[in-house]
């Protein structure tokens, strides 16, 4: 997606508005602001992070029981102890 730049005024209360097409594309009403010193980065954050995490991990780990996961973890620990 090509970069687009907008110029907006900041209100006396420190507010600014995000363009409607950006808000629709992000489908969220929550953002995180990162102060990079000479610029500010605005990133979308899911309104429901739990639901977003569920969706991100959907289909992973199918067929893995807690017993099997413990077994794999033990195996990884043993491997790391053998390799300095």
Q: What features would you describe in this structure?
A:
By secondary structure, the chain is of the alpha+beta class. It has a domain at 1-58. The chain has 3 helices and 2 strands. Strand 1 and strand 2 form a beta hairpin. It is elongated, with a radius of gyration of 22 Å.
In short:
By secondary structure, the protein is α+β, with helices and mostly antiparallel strands. The chain has three helices and two strands; from the N terminus they run αββαα.
Search tags:
84 residues, two-stranded antiparallel ribbon, elongated
Which helices and strands, and how do they pair?
Blueprint: H1 20-26, E1 30-35, E2 40-45, H2 49-56, H3 66-82
Antiparallel strand pairs: 1-2
User: Strand fraction band?
Assistant: 5-15%
Helical proportion? Answer: 25-40%
Shape: elongated
Radius of gyration over all CA atoms, rounded: 22 Å
Strand arrangement, major sheet = 1-2
Low-confidence stretches: none
Structure class = alpha+beta
């Amino acid at each position: 997606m090509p970069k687009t730049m907008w110029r907006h005024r900041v209100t006396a209360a420190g507010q600014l508005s995000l363009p409607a097409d950006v808000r629709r594309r992000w489908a969220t009403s929550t953002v995180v602001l990162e102060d990079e010193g000479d610029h500010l980065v605005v990133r979308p954050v899911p309104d429901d992070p739990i639901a977003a995490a569920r969706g991100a991990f959907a289909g992973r780990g199918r067929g893995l029981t807690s017993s099997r996961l413990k077994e794999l973890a033990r195996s990884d620990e043993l491997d790391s102890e053998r390799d300095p």
